[in-house]
Amino acid sequence: MDLRFTPADEAFRAEVRAWLRDHLVGDYAALGGAGRPGREHEGLDVRMAWERELGAAGWIGLDWPRQHGGREATLLQQVIFHEEYAAAGAPGRVNHVGEQLLAPTVLAYGTDAQKRRFLPGILRGTELWCQGYSEPDAGSDLAAVRTQARLDGDVWRIDGQKVWTSLAEHADWTFAVVRSEPGSERHKGLSYLLVPMDQPGVEIRPIVQITGTSEFSEVFFSDAVTAAENIVGAPGDGWRVALGTLAFERGVATLGQQIGFARELEEIADSARASGAIDDPEIADRIATAFCELRVLRFNALRTLAGDPTAAAGAASVAKLLWAPWHQRLGELAIDVRGVETTLAASGDGYALDGDQALWLYTRSDTIYAGSNEIQRNIIAERMLGLPRG
Amino acid sequence: MDFAFTEDQQELRAVVRAFLARRARSEQVRAGWEPATWAQLIEQLELTGVALPEAVGGAGASFVEAGIALEEIGRALLPAPYLPTVVGATALAATPELQARVVAGDAIGLALDARDPLRAVASATARAAGDDGDSPPLLDGVAPQVLDGALARLFVVAARDAAGEPALYAVEAGARGVRVVARPTVDQTRGQAALHLSAAPAVRLSAPGEGAAALARLGETLWVAQALEAVGVGDRALSETVAYLKERVQFGRVLGSFQALRHRCADLAAELEGARATAHYAAWAVDGAPQELAVTAPLAKAVCAQAASRVAAEAIQLHGGIGFTWEHDAHLWFKRAKATEQLYGTPRALRRLAAERAGLLRAA
Known about the structure:
The structure holds 2 protein chains of 2 kinds. By secondary structure, chain A is α+β, with helices and mostly antiparallel strands. Chain A has 3 domains: 7-94, Acyl-CoA dehydrogenase/oxidase, N-terminal domain (Butyryl-Coa Dehydrogenase, subunit A, domain 1); 129-237, Butyryl-CoA Dehydrogenase, subunit A, domain 2 (Beta Barrel), CATH 2.40.110.10; 254-384, Up-down Bundle (Butyryl-CoA Dehydrogenase, subunit A, domain 3), CATH 1.20.140.10. Chain A has helices spanning 7-23, 26-30, 44-56, 75-87, 96-109, 112-124, 238-247, 254-275, 281-305, 315-338, 355-362, 373-384, and strands spanning 129-132, 148-152, 155-166, 173-179, 190-196, 202-207, 216-227, 231-232. In chain A, α8 packs antiparallel against α9 (281-305), α8 (254-275) runs parallel beside α10 and α10 (315-338) packs antiparallel against α12. The longest helix of chain A is centred in the C-terminal third of the chain and has 25 residues, at 281-305. Chain B has 3 domains: 7-103, Acyl-CoA dehydrogenase/oxidase, N-terminal domain (Butyryl-Coa Dehydrogenase, subunit A, domain 1, Orthogonal Bundle), CATH 1.10.540.10; 108-208, Butyryl-CoA Dehydrogenase, subunit A, domain 2; 212-357, Up-down Bundle (Butyryl-CoA Dehydrogenase, subunit A, domain 3), CATH 1.20.140. The mean pLDDT of chain B is 96. In chain B, the strands form 2 sheets. In chain B, strands 1, 2, 3, 4, 5, 6, 7 and 8 form an 8-stranded mixed sheet that branches. In chain B, strands 9-10 form a two-stranded antiparallel sheet. The interface between A and B is large, with 53 and 52 residues.
């Protein structure tokens, strides 16, 4: 057990920091935290340019094999990259879904032709991806997917609906879990298709959230098509590939996320000190508690990322159960520190919320998305504790 | 960065756990202090010297190894003065002869303020008339709650020196002017005693001008040790509860298949995993990054003690009626966990301290 970063890691950190210092300037720096959760809808054109800038400098696909343009970075180096990225106040990434979910799936399950076709666009930041998993009747229960696909000559024809799709309007492609065997049930008969978004058979409708803004969409497929070869894995093997994609979420951005959390907490504490709210012992304890628990999130993430194998089973679910309610409590704290003035909207123009109000409302989604916390509890109960299913 | 325990450390944990499975069964824990078990802990497992230098007979390992023992001993609720002894030993760097006695099994009592371990409980008097300058300093004071004080051969005392500055002293349990009065405890697996010092001869442990730092370091090490022990207690309570829920049948099903109970266990497991990561990090920091302890140690104690308390309280509920009986061990975990919360700074006080030291709150 040695919890220091190695000299090689520190050198990598210095390289990342120096590059960000030199390149995160002008329009890019002006974005601030745009694109972070709750602000996914902001500054998209500049963020897409920034993604290409990152790609040109080799900061995308850090862990990919060299033959596909990666630098075979270690897990901790990826963590360091995200930490420095967040610390620099760089904007939210537009192609997290492509880089962190689709690319590892193609690398693991894709054909050589698929790797040649799809990886370069992600690596250069020129092709954006969105995820086509959830449906109106398949949220936590992904195996209830109903969107249909049938092979018609040299194309798949797709009909159905996906929902809760981030960045759907800007994505060039989606990876969709579809039912390719009529009459099949549950996790059998599913396929994992790569579908171009820019076609008449794909319609996108933004979902207005409780914040009044839209970061997610519904995606309707009406006789949408994709080439027959755009299937990852065999027909009917989509469940295995889809779960593989979810398993690639290794939490390399966790420490970066926590830097954002720390910034939010500091702003709340600053506000409480300025207003005198901090003299309320209850408020002071909630700030102190949030501070301590944020450190717990960090130690827990380090334990998982830096390889304590006893932390592996269910670790991602544990992390979610710790951070999502933490962030929700922070949103409540932001409101309670300021008090009654937060019942007024920032302006009468539309539904304009200030940062604290947006945080308070947006964080209600933290315990729902990426596997609701109830699903995470099921996973922990089964995989970590070995409790029988009901 | 490597958060994994080494093979040697994993082996140490396995050996200690196996030893305690034989030597700290429920009836043995309830019978209280057993000198023969302590002797084996010293002679076979060499646990009191695990983090002490080889020059004094120790194993020369780090506080991580002591932490593994603390966690396992907490898990077993072994009635033995291990925690105050390994913590107190870290204050003996300047007195190798005292460290050697710890390696050989002399238990240490921590004469600290049980509410706030950073405050002095005694004061050193100016030398007696006719003193030729070689006589030891004499201590006066009372420490009303010393963990396992009746078993201590040596006390580490937080005091003010003759100049009024904080300092650490060692006092022999058998010295003149030392009176130890055992006190009954609610957590019967761990004793307490009142220590009365009346012109008791002492050995100064901290150099002049370094007493406050030495006392701070001792307090931080103590909080880390409490955190580790609490994680052991919580782990025991949760694992026994989960095992029970896999066996107990009601309504024709094992209880552990009811989602209401599964989800509660999952919440407890998540809280405990966070606490475990925190305690392990803090254990490493004692030797690996001591500059981080000012913040990490108090928060580790706060987080881990509270996690253990929650798990132990839920363990009673999830066991149902049997969990409320004297016969079942659930009350032992529950009482230990609460005692750990209360002793040496409550979670609320330590959270505040950590946040103040991090600059997030103003000092009260």
